[in-house]
Specification:
The complex is a heterodimer of chains A (397) and B (97). With 397 residues, chain A is α/β, with parallel strands linked by helices. Chain A has two domains: 3-246, Thiamin diphosphate (ThDP)-binding fold, Pyr/PP domains (Rossmann fold, 3-Layer(aba) Sandwich), CATH 3.40.50.970; 253-386, Rossmann fold. Helix content of chain A is 40%, strand content 18%. In chain A, α1 packs across α2 (34-45), α1 packs parallel to α6 (140-155) and α3 (59-71) runs parallel beside α4. Chain A is globular, with a radius of gyration of 21 Å. Chain A starts with a strand and ends in an 11-residue tail after the last strand. The mean pLDDT of chain A is 96. Chain B is of the alpha+beta class and 97 residues long. Chain B has a domain at 30-94: 2-Layer Sandwich (Alpha-Beta Plaits), CATH 3.30.70. Chain B is built from two helices and four strands. Chain B has helices at 50-54, 80-84, and strands at residues 36-40, 60-62, 68-70, 90-94. In chain B, the strands form two sheets. Chain B has a two-stranded antiparallel sheet with strand order 1-4. Classes of the chains: A alpha/beta (397), B alpha+beta (97). The interface between A and B is medium-sized, with 24 and 18 residues.
């Protein structure tokens, strides 16, 4: 029987990785992810976890090392944040295209400059194109549960891709929560031993990562595109299996009180939980509003999202990152991609909030709701806006 | 990059575009990069074999008579053999075709 205990989410995530019986961890400490690798290094040192812990000199080396151990057939885990993820950037594409089933937890944090250790989604969103699977946990329990789920997804023979498990830095990583911890035995009933489909083996030599001339590069990319997109089915199956086994079911797209809502907020991460409390409050005042959250971000659950916003009038899309001088926030861009050309597509009010640890509170949601309500009442759709910027977004540009 | 087809469809690629056959780089006849080729003056050659040791392509071998022989399928004309030959018996000749 699983034990429920008060524990810092980072430690719970590290314990979950240990309970998955990982073979190798190569990581470099970076706030706010440090406690995860710190705890794993303790577990290895104390003999609790029989794994190689490889302390490296940078995140670039951490991801390179993970590629090596995964290629050798080891169940591989790592963790990072922000600048660390940015430093891994070039190796991220290699891990993905070599189809190495690495699991990496990312405690989401803002990118410098200015130097900022607090939470937003600029680190993960700038890695959208790297070809990894990407999934979000909104609290400690979810993020802990998603560790074995991620290993199972990544290692599934129909998938064989690295996966990035995102959760908000500090807001999730450093909070002590009552978390139901699955034991090693329980996880073993869900996550079988890792059997690599192909690996580096001196007795059966193969080349991983050969040159891909112009004659073959496009086909290699197409194979990768198919692998990421086709991962959707197995991901749904595995989430469902976890739910049936342990009673907590996660979905690629999560909804909250959307049935009768005209206005729906679209977001991801821990701010959704604050938003749920806000929705409960304003619903008492008769405001019909709900939330749709992307749990799965890659592959983008296009059809599930379309279904979730079917018949809604206005979407309030909250991004935690944006492209300066570009087309606004990434969540809004991709939501618009899913809905472009759809008949009766909802209108989109796009805001950027919660940058670099700025709290997204009830006032923020009130403001966004007001903008959505105006559009619902027939007003013009306002342009994309950094809604929390003192001085206003378009006032002085 | 495999032997069977130089232009496979994406469905036919190995997982992660891996090359599953060991030593398959021999199918890449990279000698056509060459702009000049090494020529040996066997009257001067002392059969020491130093050229075969330094050839970075491994495309030099000693033949049955004990003289070095170049495999032009793979020789890129780098002229390292010319630099390393202490008797000065190797010269480079421009490829005309």
């Amino acid at each position: 029987m699983a034990v429920r205990k008060g524990i810092e989410s980072s430690l719970a995530i590290a314990e979950a990785a240990a309970a998955c019986n990982v073979d190798c961890i190569a990581a470099y400490p970076i706030t706010p992810q440090t406690h995860i690798v710190e705890h794993l290094s303790e577990l290895v040192n104390d003999g609790v976890l029989d794994a190689e812990f490889i302390p490296v000199e940078s995140e670039h080396s951490a991801m390179s090392c993970c590629c090596g151990t995964a290629a050798a057939g080891a169940r591989t885990f790592t963790a990072t944040s922000s600048q660390g993820l940015a430093l891994m950037h070039e190796i991220m594409f290699i891990a993905a295209n070599l189809r190495l089933p690495i699991v990496m937890t990312v405690a989401n944090r803002a990118l410098s400059a200015p130097i900022n250790i607090w939470n937003d989604h600029s680190d993960v969103m700038t890695e959208r194109d790297c070809g990894w699977l990407q999934i979000f946990g909104e609290n400690g329990q979810e993020s802990t549960d998603l560790v074995p789920i991620c290993h199972k997804i990544a290692e599934d023979k129909r998938v064989l891709l690295p996966i990035m498990l995102n959760f908000d830095g500090f807001i999730v990583s450093h909070v002590v929560e009552p978390i139901e911890m699955l034991t090693r035995e329980e996880i073993a009933t869900f996550l079988p031993d890792y059997e690599p489909q192909q690996r580096l083996d001196v007795d059966n030599p193969i080349t991983m990562g050969p040159v891909g001339m112009p004659e073959v590069y496009t086909e290699a990319k197409m194979a990768h595109e198919a692998a990421v997109r086709n991962a959707y089915g197995p991901i749904c199956e595995i989430l469902e299996e976890f739910g049936q086994k342990f009673g907590r079911t996660y979905k690629p797209v999560e909804t909250y009180k959307t049935e009768d809502a005209d206005i729906v907020f679209v977001m991801m991460g821990a701010a959704s939980e604050t938003c749920m409390s806000w929705v409960d409050k304003v619903r008492e005042q008769g405001k019909k509003v709900g939330i749709v959250r992307f749990r799965l971000w890659r592959p983008l659950p296009v059809e599930a999202f379309k279904e979730a916003v079917q018949g809604k009038k206005v979407l309030g899309i909250i991004d935690r990152h944006f492209s300066p001088g570009g087309a606004g926030g990434p969540v809004a861009q991709e939501v618009k991609y899913t809905l472009y050309g759809e008949k009766d597509a909802p209108k989109a009010v796009e805001v950027v909030a919660g940058l670099g640890g700025r709290d997204i509170d009830f006032d923020t949601f009130d403001k966004i709701f007001d903008r959505c309500q105006k559009v619902l009442d027939g007003g013009e759709v306002p342009p994309f806006e950094l809604i929390q910027a003192r001085g206003g977004h378009y006032g002085k540009i | 990059m495999a032997k069977q087809s130089p232009a496979p469809n994406w469905q036919d690629l190995a997982l992660g575009c891996a090359t599953l056959e060991a030593g398959s780089s021999r199918y890449q006849k990279t000698g056509d990069w060459r702009s000049s080729r090494p020529i040996w003056n066997f009257e001067q050659c002392v059969k020491c074999g130093v050229c075969t040791v330094f050839c970075p392509e491994g495309c030099l071998k000693m033949n049955a008579d004990g003289y070095p022989q170049v495999d032009l399928d793979y020789c890129k004309g780098c002229a390292i053999c010319v630099t390393e030959c202490w008797t000065g018996c190797i010269s480079m000749e421009e490829e005309k075709d």
